[in-house]
Amino acid sequence: MASVTSKTPMLRAAAARGYAAHAQAAAASRGSTEVQTTTLPNKLVVSSAEPNAAVARISIAFRAGSRNETADSLGAAHVLRAAGGLSTKTATAFGITRNIQQAGGSLTTTADRELVSYSVAVTKDQLEVGLKYLEATATGQVFKPWELAELTPIIRNELARLPTEVQAVELLHKAAFRDGLGNSVFCPDYLVGKHSSETMQHYFATNCTTNRAAVAGVGVDHQLLVGFAQSLALESGAGSENKSTFNTGEVRREGAGSRAAVAVGAQAVGWNSLKEAMAFWVLQYAAGVGPATKRGANNGALTKALSGVNSSSLFNGYTDNGMFGFVVSGDAKNAGKAVEAGVKALKSLSVTDADVTRGKASAVAAVLDITENQSSLHHQLGEESALLGQVYKKSDLLAAVNAVTAGDVQAAARKVASSKLAVGAVGNLSHVPHLCDLH
Fold first, then answer.
1. CA torsion angle for 175, 180, 181, 185 (degrees, to 10)?
2. Mean pLDDT of all residues belonging to the chain
């Protein structure tokens, strides 16, 4: 949902804030095209790149994703995302929307298992407006009861339109991690409309602190961004880390119809172990991610085993843990057969030197695609800054991929093959085997 908000006038507050006055000089500044990172004394991390990009993209990211929810706040991250465009201490929802539209910009809120991020995109001449409403949205929410009530049909509509493949992946996380990473990105149906203003204020105050935050920008001068970050009215506090361990298990949700969607996962690693995570990333491409071209061949042992149904390989890497596996969907009978074939492929997963070479080439292409696209680069900056406290430059990522050896990828494949499994399944499951029957 669109997210925007307002704060004090920036030009009038230039002397106090230090970033608005700097904007005029920054417009003419060439700046460094390298990624720049600064950690403020209050632990807030600021990162930027490509200062001369035509469009300025800035985000404020918090480690406030669904893994941080407790039994008393399940679904709060989803509500926080949906509430992104609501009234704040300094602006109404109408004022937020109108001013961002008048500036020709966009202000959005996203949420996943680890992060809740508020982002604005505007042209350089509207940067002041963009920062003003971004700051208010990310730091000045009031969660008025009647506005929260208006989110109920919106959230219910989101839940009703979730693809079965997404539902299966959510159930897989519940089976594999239970609490923490097992918390769904989506609000449980029975809790929709049950989050009070007090609940949301407490969740925000607990998880949206300087120690758990980052400010990231593309197309904006780094020192201007540092000044903006220094002005944010956020409390300090480390909060809890909510570590999650991988478990075996399955969660099945029977449904009507003739189709089924199933997600299967084995234990992988988190991105706090970059070298090993890169090996799993290359393994994903080596094992196959489907045809690279229209009517192309399925390269890789895993995707070949899953032919005949809609399928995709899966590598979900989080800060401290991860999963490697696959998702299939289709006619119930075919889906059941594909699950058996896919598990067999996982349990005997191996890669050749040629597979690794192909996987590394695909991973390099993915790195270039991420870091040379300003929108995805912006997302990367915010994610790494908030979760890892640092940002990897393109050269760092390319070097990490190129440093992966065939032995590293084969070790990752052996870890997958020997791992216990978790399964999430939804739909007509009459032909989908139970976990205990998968060997």
1. 100
2. 88
